[in-house]
Each structure stands twice: as C-alpha cells, then as structure tokens.
Description:
By secondary structure, the protein is an alpha+beta fold. It has helices spanning 20-28, 44-52, and strands spanning 6-11, 37-41, 57-61. Belongs to the universal ribosomal protein uL30 family. Keywords: Ribonucleoprotein, Ribosomal protein. Part of the 50S ribosomal subunit.
Amino acid sequence: MAKDKTIVVQQVGSPIRREKSQRATLIGLGLNKMNKQRELVDTPEVRGMINKIPHLVRVIGE
C-alpha cells in the first residue's frame, strides 16, 4: 500500500466575525484555535476547503 501524500495546515486567522460557512470549514479541517496545526491527506476536497478560506489558514508543509 502506497503512503498517502499529506500536507500540514496551520490556522493563522480568527473565526470571529466570519461567516458561518467559513467557521464550519475551519472545523471541518480540524482547526479551532489560533496557530493549531493539522496534518491532512492531500485530496481535492481538502484543497478546496483550504482555497475557500486562504485568509484564515496557511499551508506549512507539503
């Protein structure tokens, strides 16, 4: 079994005063506190979520 490619995503923006859908996207990525990092499998779905909120997250490692 081949190892899946992963990316590390860090939350850099606050969800305060953001639309409900942007908050839900952060929670969907597993982020809920500032500077929290998550290692996620690099899929089109995850990339789409990151592209929806580029002002709130940063991709650290690919």
